[in-house]
Amino acid sequence: MPIFDCSAILFDLDGVLVDSTRSVTRQWRLWAAEHSIDPDYTVSIAHGRRSIEVIRMLAPHLDAEGETLRLEAREAADLEGVEVMPGAADLLRSIPESRWCVVTSGTRRLATSRLRLANLPMPKVLVSADDVLQGKPHPEPYLKGAELLGMQPQDCLVIEDAPFGIEAAHAGGMKAIALPTTFPANELKTADAVAGKLSQIKVTASSSGLTITI
Questions:
Q1: pTM score
Q2: Measured at the alpha carbon of residue 48, what is the angle toward residues 44 and 53, in degrees to the nearest 5?
Q3: Is 40 a catalytic site residue?
Q4: In this predicted model, what pLDDT tens digit does every residue of 183-211 receive, in sequence order?
Q5: Is residue 90 annotated as part of the catalytic site, yes or no?
Q6: 12 and 69 assigned to the same domain
Q7: 32, 50, 77 - which closes a domain
């Protein structure tokens, strides 16, 4: 049974706290088809990355900021199949609010919409695509999350569902637990541990920090 000690936990949102994979996939496929771009390839690189960066990669001739606004407005309105991850609410309640945050590749508007839909607590620290210059797999999002929590990066642990997010965590000097919710476990092997589902992760808080068991 893997055991980790840390000072704080940084959660990805989509695919970790909220099951939104079907909505995300649906909207990226629609966007790709509208612009005559391979939908399968689009989906394969979109999960875990900021929308604006994906659009710049695939369609540099388009207005990336405008396309991102339209795409994420559609995602926010597409509620079919979007659900809270089993165990998410209980897990967050087990952690002092000063020792966890959300670090997402989505915009703040989309992130807050998903958190409210899932009836999850709004974190004191939320790092969104709007708050960084470089998204995952660059470590900037997770480093910013640690900074805003007042923690050293090496004392933080990340929970992720995407290879880009695991890469970002490791680049920032953090350990990462992966969930095979969006990608199969064999694509998440670089994580420090893989939990079958979020509800298997247990956190015990003490005055000295957090202990995570799977």
A1: 0.91
A2: 85
A3: no
A4: 999 999 999 999 999 999 999 999 889 99
A5: no
A6: no
A7: 77
